[in-house]
Amino acid sequence: MKMIIVGSVAAGTSVAAKARRNNENIDITVYNADYDISYSICGIPYFLGGEVENLSSLTPRSAAWFKDRYHVDIFTRHEVTQINIEQKNVVVKDLETGIEKIDSYDSLVLATGASPITPDIPGVDREHVFQVRTIQNTAQIDQYLTKENPKRATIIGAGYIGLELAEQLTRKGLDVTLIQRSHQVMPHLDKDMAFRVEEELRRNGVHLLLNEEATSIEEKSVHTRSGQCIESDIVIVAAGVRPNTKIAADAGVALGSTGAIAVNSKMQTNVKDVYAVGDVAESYSLITGDPVYRPLGSTANKMGRIAGDVLTGGDLEHRGILGTGILRVFALTVGQTGLSEKEAREHGYDVEVLYNLKPARADYLGGKELVIKAVADKSTGRILGVQIVGEEGVDKRIDVFATAITFKAKAEDLFHLDLAYAPPFSTTKDPVMYTGMALDNAIKNKNRLITPNELLKRMDNGERLQIIDTRAEKQYRVSHVPDALNIPLSELRERANKLDPDLTTITYCNSGVTGNAAQNILINMGIKDVYNLSGGNKNFQTYIKLKGNV
């Protein structure tokens, strides 16, 4: 059996490695247009910022190493320019000599990856304008940074790569401006969580321009749609990627609704004996079942392993993804898995939303606050998605949530998880457990929640509300919800008889715990329509700032 793999970064090499582990007799050939194989694109920003000392650290495997370890022939600087489905062969061009050849296959795997989107901006081809693509390209950026010693950088695009580069170049001493076309950074986050990232960027000196667009790039400046002129010595374009599907589409391989190659759970395309993996292939949501395109190295490796197994008689199948991602932005870590609130509502779910503000570990050991936004389906209790922002402990929690969502956990299930506890690592009720407990109570109408957005809507509509601030008077004076009555929790039982039992009542504290205690007191005293403000006054004040910036 002869297998040809087109592309050799994460997915392609994973196909080859798994196929060889399963079968010593298969003939495996890999063609790659680039110079390097199996390199870490995700590590590139950290090399440019100096956290990774040597660029070679991002290319731990060479074609020679693969030949020695797996008996796989990898031809770098060889581009597959045409696929002939009927003849089951490919046309391959040696990019160094220009010589073409035809090579036949029994099975063909497309791992052609994705390429950065190049906006149609005059000047985007100037010498000081770069995209983060390959190891060779990264070396060119590094040489430019060393030789030209730029002082001012403009980054176009505020996705993962754009944010990572904003952090790294700022730490390197450059004055960084970040331009984003949409109204927020990190489009897969809800705006109220992305806003916390935006504040962190500004706190660290990044000039953030939202709802803005670069219209031209000059030798020392970038001009924008609103008329701004941004002085720039180096420009990085990080406007997203698109799958490299041309040779596949030209050969009759079907593309899916996302624009990437459509595959089934065994990574098979519509063409017999042709497979697609990695950033060129679309996946599907574990929650909705809909096609999704989230090009990540972790997914590419998984797809490659599945295809390599299937091609050698194995029974692995792709089960879909949650789009789990994590990012560091200066002091903050940002994690996300599953559906955002916006996505869940767009898919027709009636959702319960919780903001959970809790320390990642014991307060008395310096635990720092996590902000967890969790979304659950009211009808089933199933967790649909979680977003977390915080200075520590985000990675641990987002992985627990991703695991739980994968196995279709309900909110009530989270509380019963037997998670590791010791004061240096967690709290007695871990933030994951507390999230499940509070969401379950809200879904079952034991302790109903109201978000800042919902509260403001009711206030704007003129609804009569009874809002109780349960904190000390000193905290109340610093900031509070408009029209809130300050009744500290210690006084609530004695003063509850002065409240109107027929009015919808909102309780809150700093972050939610004391507000919940007050809610229970009032419910037990006969006030039935009581909500706790999710995330408390901290979350409310952040939301007010967000509204003021929109």
Structure at a glance:
This protein has 550 residues and is α/β, with parallel strands linked by helices. It has 17 helices and 30 strands.
Folded structure, characterized:
Strand 19 (283-284) and strand 20 form a beta hairpin. The model has no long low-confidence stretch (mean pLDDT 95). The radius of gyration is 27 Å and the shape is globular. The protein is α/β, with parallel strands linked by helices and 550 residues long. Helix 1 runs parallel beside helix 8 (297-310). It starts with a strand and ends with a helix. The chain contains 17 helices and 30 strands. It has a five-stranded parallel β-sheet with strand order 3-2-1-7-18. A five-stranded parallel β-sheet has the order 9-16-10-11-12. The chain has a five-stranded antiparallel β-sheet with strand order 21-22-25-24-23, with helices on both faces. The chain has four domains: 2-114 and 242-310, FAD/NAD(P)-binding domain, CATH 3.50.50; 129-239, FAD/NAD(P)-binding domain (3-Layer(bba) Sandwich), CATH 3.50.50.60; 331-443, FAD/NAD(P)-binding domain; 448-549, Oxidized Rhodanese, domain 1, CATH 3.40.250.10.
